[in-house]
């Protein structure tokens, strides 16, 4: 089963395999890259990757088989493993793991159970409801003491609404199954804790859930020191592995499992596994020490960070622990003495190790849970800590509990400061929430303004893109180039709107001289890029620009005069007040000129390198060009040169907009999108719709659409109309996103009035209209109509096919469906055009 | 939707419906009966029924629809509901609820969710892994604040082994879902808490899990004061019900549910439900008060029972609370001051009400959990209590935790005494187990001899029956007759071996002047009945007989001389030492004489009435005869008279065995079944089988088979051979239960050597044998063989079909499969016959 090891990591194997055909680029993007940065302490490789890739790097190494049913946010790990397997990448034993996709997570867990009983090294990746479907089998796997690691990108569970985002509701729902649980606080720890889990489970025979925060860690790109496979191979306790294999259920060593037990013996048999759980913390400690010896990164079961004479402690799991750690120096500089105690091994819970790690001086503890169990006295981690303190007899310690980050609500330094303030309050609030405003049951802690606790040399960037325009890919690329070629630490996180293609994407990038622990959005950026002209009239991006920061717009408006005409006064005023350096680039013009249509990713990436000023610009462009040669070289020199040309054109196209001093004196007014909602509210009030009252649009829909949803207080939801996850109908007609870059225009000369376009539209936004003679007389001249066909029923009426331009997503389905080529896609320059097109029809 | 109410309970409706065709008897057995016992405080009806029926009585009343997938031990509730619905029984609204069986519990939960969203009063019944499959939908139902009650017969979850028996692993695995949770401590409370749940959920909008211990309550028959449906109807908060219906999702009131929420608003929306949970304890309190006002049974959220100046408290959920309550007077009589605090509303957990209910004098608390969460600091109830005490600042209280009753391990007064002793110990053991001997990790509390805490006038009976011989049905019947016709409180619990038909059944019956809280096995009985002759040579039933008790055997041995010859010396010695009254009845003779074959239920029931002396014998027989007339009257007077005749014959057939004084001087020796295992162990040791080492048979298989499995210590399982639920193969050959009343005998003159009988046997215990000439020469004379057919391969060999009599279950499959009628079923009188049949072949 073991073969000679002559490779160090799956990516190396792949890179040396040579031509990989059409999938090469997709693969290249998905696989970890190498870079010539500083040497890793483990003699391993620093690679710029996300948490899922880090987890896959380790789990792929240590498994023989995986049963998967990918679910967000764990999918990339599962899919990557499948991809590597298909490409023949080998695990540490020199074998190619077999990855099987099942019919559901329940099936994946069942197959996993069977594979483990048969003596395999088997794993799976899951999250949320997927993990819940595995619960019955988890009891079996744990009850049968089968070594195993389940990798969970921890995510919210669907209750009043679905959320694909990170919190700990799912993992906390399996804490009773008998699985050990270990968690990661950083992307690096996604790698390290996965490794500790795989090493420890073999020795402990207790199965592990290794969890890492969904999206915040699973999808966050950072520099990770990855351990080579030959190193990992040497760390495996072969005696324990052989013992696992010797216990395999197979025809040559038959025995019975899954028996029925009666009341006489069930309890005794259950208690016979105690010793395994008793030993697990010590085994995990030893494996952490061994990983520490190899990598230089030392971990404890409970990791204390903060003053040794701390008066107060915050106990927290997951990425929030990093945020607390990052924020405490600021908090303590205000005269407090607060430390953070991060449990890494959550189950088995070692009260002894917890108490050992907690300084004797601590008098108050705030336990922060990233889950909510309605009806419980407190959340799970709180109950564990409060009971541990109760047992310890240290009756001078006050323990309070709170909730943070549900459904990935932002947890930032100001939240940590609020928790610290509460700890020092005379009467601290207990069972609080932090990060929101609860103006109904008043559980929330008051929040002050955001605090910047990052290293002064850290550069933060915010880039607003249009889903599918290539912005996110370009930013991933840029982050990797910078990460792989400098000593800088990097962090890239991407927020997508739920509309996906055609929705808003916001890239949050950080580059700094020290490891980045800011697992939250960039709220004030050194560089703000807006890759979509219409956004300038939709979102207040300048709110997120630092003083003296750089603002770059992709638009056709290259002069101050054009800006005066097209850029809203409020935006210009804010830029002036912030003393911003302002640039414009007409990216579409460049890309179209270079024959790339509307794919502006190369253009905007070049512009970013030039303006964001993260690393030496010339070196950066050289590296970028080299990357392009690597990626597209096999398509021929012409393609490479076209890209080079586009980069040069892009750089030439950057125009600085010298901010006139008098912009400061402008008076603000509503953005077009704000106005849109303002008008819609007026209309709703007039309509008195029974299904969509203005309150929903005013209190929730509009702020969410305008990217101000974070500020919505609890009271907006605490009414009969909405509580329990109800949402009114008829909200789409208010939304009017206007995301289509092109919309269908009808040629009424060709239209046969068959209505097929209307029936084909997935959004029901292209429709036939019948006009009375009076209406036809009053229509705008551009609104071309014809006599309606259809006999007596429509006699005297006029007919036209018309799209609702602000609802259309530009998918072209109608154009393709029209049997008579009566439709064509056309750009509309701005809202005036739209109005002239549709007149009073909408 | 509401119709006039002119019925009081479903059973009344049914009873007045008249002829019900062939299913009448099954129905009659399943429906609650009425009796002329004392008036119920509620003006309701005292009925003798089990927990599932009590739950169904209430839930059927209060629902419009149920989605079910019956699972042990909740099945009777679901099946009864379906039966009532099929018979047209109406709920409190005068409608017939619709019951739908789904494809799995996941489907049942999904359909339930949909029905609730559509404004229905919907419910389900489940347990164990079934409940686990409902978890994803439970989050949805709770998140959407849909009023609902799930009735759960709490059961163990399959881990190292499957257990169908009661504990709280399943319900504790859903405590995080946002459901409220309420529990019953007695069969009466199964009824009362179900009612409180249904009333409270409508007002609270928080869904409820109403749970009751599997088997110990779900299958325990007691007298229950059932509330009439017209009373229940009046208790429903119609305003709340109408509000629920008004929130229904339907085409006339459309809205959206199940949306996707992003990090900006998910947390706030989740917190908007806080107020509902905050109000729930008060609502439940109010509904408990209203139920109390009607029934005279008053409940608290946390119910204290014990001295007001208690020094120590035991906190416990479920039927164990009743056992503690029953045992504490004895414990406190030894100089302790211990009380019991029983949480009824487990979620939402009201710390305030807990602390209010706990006497100020309490300094030590033992929290007893009926679940185990390996790797947790303590079990869930423990964590809740420890944290509550920690929060309260009452730092002079010591809280310890322990586990009881996993997989329905016996929890008896001696366990309560052990917990009390531990509470008073200088250094109490924490995180202990009670009820077993843990000689490996030493968590268990030491146990003394069993304590009898029942009322002195309570009569306890133990009856050993043969699965399918009618014993259990007869005992149910007897219990109902006594319960329905006397002021006595009754309790009947039935333990079945896993072999079901053909296995051992033990009926545990209690009759007493006060409500019975002994939710554990009868360990010392006033009356022990053995309905199967062979058991006298298998089990030490006399161990469970009280001094001066009555022992009755069904056997053909009607004289002291025959007893001397056939009844083991040890048994006779024990009877003499206990000064037992001993009786014999040849029940098979009576039943066969009356043309009832081997159905001895009527015979043994009559004998029980005569000998157990629970109520006036003559009245009892008259009532019994009346019951028979009611049950079989529709089959004609002849059938009735045959039964009457059988009763009279049975009473005449009772022979007292006057115990000779010298039986005391007999020396004990192994029973046949004990000898069997003794011999098997010797054989296994000689064989040195790789798959079944003697240790398993010695330490586990034999004690379990001999009904001594309760005494097996943890160490028997704590070895590599067995830990994690492994069981060796090849154990059936040791088992040799000998349960077949008749076995197949071959007529070798007719046998064609086709082997079809062998292939058809589900237990592989009838097989063809080939004998060499030497073997054939040495065979016993009864072992009839023929020249083997089959050509050269078997030339010179002899052939015979032979069953293994001790493995055969007497199912007759082989006899029916034989194409040539070569097999017939035949009685074998005893083990000697068997040996003569099989000779050295086995």
TrEMBL record, chains A, B:
Pfam families in UniProt: EKR, Fer4_7, PFOR_II, POR, POR_N
Residues of the signal peptide: none
Occurrences of domain 4Fe-4S ferredoxin-type (ranges): 742-771, 799-828
UniProt GO molecular function: 4 iron, 4 sulfur cluster binding; iron ion binding; oxidoreductase activity, acting on the aldehyde or oxo group of donors
Keyword 4Fe-4S: yes
GO BP term, pick one: response to oxidative stress
Gene3D superfamilies the record matches: 3.30.70.20, 3.40.50.920, 3.40.50.970, Pyruvate-ferredoxin oxidoreductase, PFOR, domain III (3.40.920.10), Pyruvate-flavodoxin oxidoreductase, EKR domain (4.10.780.10)
Classification via InterPro entries: 4Fe4S_Fe-S-bd, 4Fe4S_Fe_S_CS, PFOR_II, Pyruvate:ferred/Flavod_OxRd, Pyrv-flavodox_OxR_EKR_sf, Pyrv-flavodox_OxRtase_EKR, Pyrv/ketoisovalerate_OxRed_cat, Pyrv_Fd/Flavodoxin_OxRdtase_N
UniProt keyword list: 4Fe-4S, Electron transport, Iron, Iron-sulfur, Metal-binding, Oxidoreductase, Pyruvate, Transport
Protein name per Swiss-Prot or TrEMBL: Pyruvate:ferredoxin oxidoreductase, putative
Organism: Perkinsus marinus (strain ATCC 50983 / TXsc)
